[in-house]
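ARCHIVE CARD
Drawer: 12
Card no.: 0347
Subject: one protein chain, sequence and derived structure
Cross-reference: see card 0346
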Amino acid sequence: MNQKKGADRGIDGFAFFLEEGQGHRKIVLQVKSGKVSSRDIRDLYGTMTREKAAMAIFITLKTPTSEMVTEANTCGFYQHKVMGRNYPCIQIITIKEILEQGKTLDIPLSLEVLKSAEKQANSKQLDLFNNIDNVEVG
């Protein structure tokens, strides 16, 4: 995640992930604390397009209206080839969902996260292999 620099032009932050054959892809993050509407989602989609981003995340203090959810759903999906799945192009998440429900962003993992997970998996496999003599069967 990168912090914004200068005038935000509707952007509060960026996240990046790798896509096979396309290099780093951008995710635009926008945070709103006041009244929100479907217009905010249309504006975010325009910002996402202008920035040539693959996805955009709208983080809000207020509960999104049904019109906002409908608008976000009409923006389509980003198909991530490496992960083999689709992600909504525009996602809406509330601060309450993050804090009370532990909801996280539904975005492709960055290369650094994947490498870290691979290291941990390999380390645990080595631990199991090294301790195989201590395992009782029966």
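Annotation on reverse: The longest helix spans residues 111-130. Residues 29 and 57 are 5 Å apart (CA to CA).
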